[in-house]
Design brief:
By secondary structure, this protein is α+β, with helices and mostly antiparallel strands. Helices cover 20% and strands 21% of the residues. Strands 1, 2, 3, 4 and 5 form a 5-stranded antiparallel β-sheet that branches. Strand 2 and strand 3 form a beta hairpin.
């Protein structure tokens, strides 16, 4: 009887699935960024194009590793990119190795942030100013108003 009760508790049907977030780690890498690299670039120029490397080994100062990993929460699909940048003794870019694929920045970053661009030059200067928003005074403001503060 006890084995039957324990066996029934081992399998619980999933009625409600938990929400899982997208987990993004490392440097965003795409083909547009890698195509800007040229032999002979300095370390600062490479850092400007690709960003700060995720891994910079103390024992191998001529190698920087850029790693990107995105795990989609809903589908559990994992996208991974790895790029190794190798410098010569003078600190100039010698070669690049890795598995970057063609992809846009929007495909690799999730969620996509939306922004609104307003052209300030097109605003009408003769328009009346907007009234300040109605803000209810706070507790301390209501206490200080009768005192004249």
């Amino acid at each position: 009887m006890g084995a039957l009760v324990l066996g029934a508790c081992s399998r619980v049907p999933r009625v409600v699935n938990e929400y899982r977030i997208d987990v993004q780690q490392g440097n965003v890498l795409n083909q547009e960024m890698v195509s800007q690299l040229r032999p002979g670039l300095s370390r600062d120029q490479v850092r400007f194009i690709l960003g700060t490397p995720l891994l910079a080994d103390v024992f191998h100062g001529e190698r920087w590793d850029y790693v990107f990993r995105l795990e989609e929460g809903k589908s559990r699909k994992v996208t991974a990119r790895h790029l190794s940048v190798l410098f010569d003794r003078d600190g100039r870019l010698a070669r690049v190795a890795g598995n970057t694929e063609s992809g846009s920045m929007e495909e690799l970053t999730a969620p996509v942030a939306t922004t609104q661009v307003i052209d300030l030059g097109s605003l009408d200067e003769d328009a009346p100013p907007l009234p300040p928003p109605d803000v209810e005074p706070g507790f301390f403001r209501r206490l200080m108003e009768p005192l004249g503060w």
